[in-house]
Structures are given as C-alpha cells and as structure tokens.
Amino acid sequence: MKNNRTCKLAVLLFVVTAMTARAQNFPSNTDESKVPPYTLPDVLQMPIGKTVINSNQWLHAQRPYIYHLYEKNQFGRYPATKTISRFKILETDNQALDGLATRKQVRIYLHPADTSVYMDVLLYLPNAVKTPAPVFVAYNFSGNHTITAEKNVLLSNRWMYFRGKGVVNNRATEAARGTDTASWQLKTILSKGFALATAYYGDLEPDTATGYTTGIRTTLKEVLNIQPDEWCTMGAWAWGLSRIADYLQTDKNIDAGKIALMGHSRLGKATLWAGASDPRFALIVSNESGEGGAALSRRWYGETVQIITAHFPHWFVAKYKTYGDDVTKLPVDGHMLLSLMAPRPLYVASAVEDTWSDPKGEFLSAREASRVYALFGKKGIDTSSMPPLNTPVGETVRYHIRSGKHAVTLYDWEQYLKFASEQFGLRR
Ligand code: GTR
Q1: Is any atom of ligand 1 closer than 6 Å to the C-beta of 291?
Q2: Domain total for the chain?
Q3: Active-site residue 314, yes or no?
Q4: Does the keyword Ubl conjugation apply (predicted)?
Q5: Is residue 406 annotated as a catalytic residue, yes or no?
Q6: 265: CA distance to ligand 1 center in Å?
Q7: Residue 62 predicted with pLDDT over 90
Q8: Which of 142, 271, 356 to probe ligand 1 with, by most ligand atoms within 8 A of CB?
C-alpha cells in the first residue's frame, strides 16, 4: 500500500517536472525581473582568439566570418546575380498626389525568359527636388495599392497573408485601396525631399511554409543556381530588395549613393539581412524587427527562437530551429546582425507596448553593435540605460522607443527622415 502510494507520487512528480521543463522551454517572458543572466558572444572576438582592434581587421576578417555564421545558421546563401533583372515602366504620372510627386510603377522581371516572375515597384519622386533624390526603400505588407488611395496604383493580384480590410479569400479587392496610408506618411516623406520605393513582399514569395513552391526559390532555382533549402523566405525577401536597388541605380532621378532601407517587423528582419548582404544600401532602419532581427535571442523576453521557428518555419534555414532548445549554442545574436551594417548609419526603433519584439533587447543590441562603429571612429549609442520614451539617442547608430504599439507611425518616419538627412549631409 505504502509502496503503491510512493510509486504514484513518484509518477506525479515526474509528470509535473516534465511539464514544468516543457513550460519553461516554450513560454515567452515579459517580466523584466525574471530575465536570467546571459552572456553574449563578443562581436570583436576573432575565432583565432584575438580581439579586433581596427576597422581593417573588422572589414577583412571578422565581418566576413560573422556574415558566414549568418549564412550558415539563420538566413542561408544570398545568391549572387549578374544583373538578371529587366525593367518595364508600366505607368508614370508627373502630377501625382496633387503635383507633389511623380509616380512611377516599374515591373522588375526577375527571370530571363519567364515573364510571370516579376515584382512591381511603386516609386514616388519628389517634384520639388530638381537633383537626383535620396530614396527610402521599404516593403509593404499587403500590396502597393494599400499605401495610397491613388486610383491608378495597380491592385496586387497576389496571395495575401494578412487578411485586412478588403482582402477576400487571401486576395485584394478594390476595398483594400489606401487601407494602410498611416504606415507610409507619403506626403511627409516627399516634402522632406525623399523618394519612396515600395513593393509587396509577397511578390517574391508567399508568406507560408509552402510558399517557396510558387515563389522565387523555386522559379529562379536554375537561374540562380541555388536549391530552395539553401536559403529561406527571409532570404528571398531580402534578395528582392537588392533587385529594387538594381532598378534604382538606373533611374536618373535617384541618387544611387543615397539608398536608405526601412523595414518593419518581419520585414525588418529581411531588411537587416539585405543591409548585411548588399553594400549599396547606404543607411538601414530596423523598425521593431524583434526576434531574429535586432533583438537579443539570449535575453529571455518576448518572442524566442523556439516560438518563432515553430510559427514560421519557412522564415529561416532549418538549422536555426535547432537552437530553439538551447539558444546559448547559437553562434550569433542580434547585435552581430546589426554590426554587419557598420559603418553605415543604422537606426533601431522599438515601441513600448510591443513587448513581443523586446524593446530593451533591441536597445542593448544596438548599443553592443556600436562597439564596431567605434572602430571606424563613429559614435553610436554609449549610454547603458534605456532612453525615455520618444527621445532618440545615439549618432551613427540611433535608437528610440516610442509610445504606443507595434506599428510604423508618423513619429517613426519623422525620426528616420531627420536621421537620413543628417547622415546623408542634406539640408532639409
Ligand atoms: C509576429 C512575429 C514577429 C513579427 C511579427 C510581424 O507574429 O512573431 O516576429 O515579425 O509577426 O511581422 O508582424
């Protein structure tokens, strides 16, 4: 009888322990007092044991080493291309937005023969700027037609992940036109003298686990000589940003030396990988990119590697998922991804209610990456405590935490435009 009870107790204890271990593995934490201590890999520590002491060592040894770690563990290979894109101007209006801008819609054909493989770029150029304009490049989440109410902007016929207003059976309808103007602040961007180039991220690959079967990882497999599992959805999206840069370099109204990249959330992660992979992007903005982007995976707060790879297995290469159980084995962390932007200006932004992206982790990551900027004589973020709300800090690396939710707001754009004007040496 006693033995029996002991046995039952032992079984119960085992089950409880197993459940607790599992619960500790899986959940996310949003209680700062529960964040356990952690140690980040030292971004300046070379594999041969030495510490990087100058920009030359960084550029020629440490940076390629860290970039390779990202290829291997998180994003896969970034296929090289011999400018395969062809461009077709589908539409132009030099009196768009009541004369404020010239609108162009450009189709970028990505396949040498198959004309069904393309992405459509919506470009607004500021009419008041008579010289080639600096430009912000940023993907949109639900089609070019959502960023403005202008009637002539082509309605995307692609599959839509987000089922917002006007999306029926995962396809856009006319009712979706202009439904996301708040995230874009077109008039502000243009009146500050910047152009804006945007494209729908789903033009490259639908945002699902099987999206690769119809996306560029399949349609361009032979052209780019890369198998779908050698890269990932994030990689495909990032690569598409480089194709936008290909076009912008050919447009005489654009200053190709002043191409800034901005990305929000999942597209912020893709943006950071594009910034790391393509030096033509002269300035990079991460808006609440969170886990797998600017945030620190080793800091147990908000989304985790385990959660993100369970929900979005296609976003990263399969290897990334293997670190879910023990993130200390991951050879990289968010600060190392940010460091790959150096010495180019970098803006990292969070929102206070967006705990899922771990604002503090994003801040600490930007601060840590600033050590690399110091090698170039550039000042990044040198304060160790989080700044107050709505108070940007830092110079070549800048950070803010905004009041409010996970979004891109007018406040965010105002900071990015000011930052880009300063960093590009423009008087705006
Ligand atoms: C969430 C995801 C985040 C972030 C976000 C978004 O569901 O967990 O990593 O990328 O989506 O893109 O809106």
Answers
A1: yes
A2: 1
A3: no
A4: no
A5: yes
A6: 6
A7: yes
A8: 356
CATH code: domain of residue 85: 3.40.50.1820
**What is the span of the domain harbouring residue 125?**
68-423
pLDDT by residue (tens digit) across 347-403? 999 999 999 999 999 999 999 999 999 999 999 999 999 999 999 999 999 999 999
State the closest ligand 1 atom to the C-alpha of 269, by its place in the atom list counted from 1: 10
Which residue of the set 142, 156, 242, 265 is catalytic? 265
Q: What confidence score (pLDDT) does residue 9 get?
A: 47
- Per-residue pLDDT at 114 exceeds 50: yes
Contacts of residue 324, Cβ cutoff 8 Å, sequence gap at least 6: 304, 305, 306, 309, 310
Residue 96 inside a domain? The answer is yes
> 61 phi and psi, to 5 degrees?
-125, -60
pTM to 2 decimal places? 0.94
- 26 within some domain: no
> What is the whole-number distance in angstroms between the Cα of residue 266 and the centre of ligand 1?
5
Residue recorded with tokens 């110079």 = 395
Distance 160 CA to ligand 1 centre (A): 15
- In a domain? residue 147: yes
- Confirm whether 260 is domain-assigned: yes
Rounded CA separation 294/268 (Å): 8
- Segment 239-290, tens digit of pLDDT: 999 999 999 999 999 999 999 999 999 999 999 999 999 999 999 999 999 9
Q: Write out pLDDT tens, residues 165-178.
A: 999 999 999 999 99
